[in-house]
Sequence to fold (641 residues):
Amino acid sequence: MVMSSTSAHGNLTGSPGRDWDRIEAQPEYRELRAMQRGFTIPATACYLIAYFGFLLLAALAPGFLGTSILGSINLGFVLIVGLFVLVWALVRSYIKVARERWDPQAERIASQASDDSAEAAR
Amino acid sequence: MSGGGNGFTVVVFALLVALTIFIVTRASRRGQTTTSFWAAGRSISGPQNGVAMAGDFLGAATMLGSVGLIMLFGFDGALYSLGWLVGFVTVLLFAGERLRNAGRFTLGDALTLRLSERPTRCAVAVTTLLISSLLLVTQLLAAGLLLEGLAGIDYSIAVVITTAAFLCYVVFGGMLSVTWLQIAKAAILASITTVVAVWVLAKAGFGPSTLLSRAADHSEQGGAFLRPGLFLTNPVDMISLGIALVFGVAGLPHLLMRFLTVPDKTAARSSVWWSVLLIGCVYLLTIVIGLGARALLSPAEIQAAGDGGNLAAPVLVQKLGGGAGTWGGDLFLAIFTAAAFATALALVAGLVIAASSAVSHDIYASVIKRGEANDRDEVRMARITTVVIGVVGILLALYVKEKNIVFLAGLVYALAASTNFPVLLLALSWRRFSTVGAVLGVAVGTISCLVLIVLTPDVWPGDNPPIGLTNPAIITVPLGFFSCWLGSVLWPDATAERLFPVLSIRARTGIGAERPTST
Fold:
């Protein structure tokens, strides 16, 4: 029984087993993949655009980042703190989405897979 | 700056050594299997692992380098450190929980779920060794120079003491003692940073705006000190460095290994949260300290902080304590020096365990013994390689002492971003990724980094370097991805394609993931 194996080596690499292919064909697994992509792709775009956009702004428009916001605190320093907050927010929302949506789905896939393989072993 | 041989230094150092020995003896009481040696029995909780992971980043470089850069270059100094924090998002999205689900001890373990065993392990073992030992040398240099500069101990002796100490930690305690060492050090570092930053803010009446304007008034550049353009002037250089940092973090073997010390995927996620929280707070405080150094120190004291401003933080701490030669100044300096030294030491222990895993787990146990080695042999081999790596580290550090090492850190991140990162990402997400693709990607990524770094202004011996780039990542990262693709298209690998679901399903769902050992 592949599912209960705790050691990957020999067991899983040696024989791919029909279990893995069966899981991959499950609609639940495809749903999980879509859920994960649905978060990962926009999140990646978001942090990369924010970070590299900020770098480009610093390189090409230093005067703009020097705009005063409050006394000597300028836009540049506000955006640095803003990027910290963005990173924290992305990590928190990842954890929330993963716990609330991905984990239950993964549970369903795992229990269905072990039912299937028990049946196959019979 | 003359901190040479003050009485407090000896006392504080003795306390530090006593503390670390206590940690190590506690940690080494448990029996040693491979799981306990490499992965601390998967018994580290999410928050603990997060703090330890933060410890990997809050090295001597943060305490000394970042404060110095901010003091010298204001805004650009603050901008420079941002990339590391952003890099953690890459780790979370593409490595963290997936690696925990699919991996065992090393990056090689996860990759070989679908790629061919021997070539893949050899390839990642080479990058792991290269990345870890380059970082190791920079940390040994930092620790040695620190001891020489602040405690008045000879550089060579300092390097030997440092190495001997961390070898004991790793040899006797494995990953568990390394982890506790990292946690203790991150806690000490965070407390000291907080105290100094609050003190600096208090001197400015707790007004960030006042602090900024005082720092600008004290700099020769005036208002320009608070705007971009003093340090990172070339946009291509900036983007290239940004690429190295943002993607390099997700390719650092000693960091990736940390994900395999936690019990499950939930703990892997929370480790990322705790480390970005801690790193973020410490970096924000570092900005305050760097600006404070500029606002409070006299021109002569800034001169004393060295060319790169590396000693800005210790000089500031001494001044806050009452100045050089006073009771308070000496005590503060001694505490700070010991903390910075402990920082370098703990990071070195983490690097050595990663380097030794490449040799004894990937090469010895899996490639040479073809997985037939028993636990005791592998752990014994790990201890031997730890000592060998330590000795090689000492020799390298003594050899490069006189050389300019600034380029090393940038090179390491570029190297990780153009080898381990593409291979890990493609193995997890691209069905047609083949073994040849992985090996070619690693080879081209490594060679192009090494070649390009020689052609950059920092290293090139002549006056006209062939490339004006200070960091090669903008060329080598796309090249690494391209080689992975080319190798996979030209030499497809039916087995790797058939086994793709094994890796991707494990990584996405956690089915079949390694469980914590019950100790």
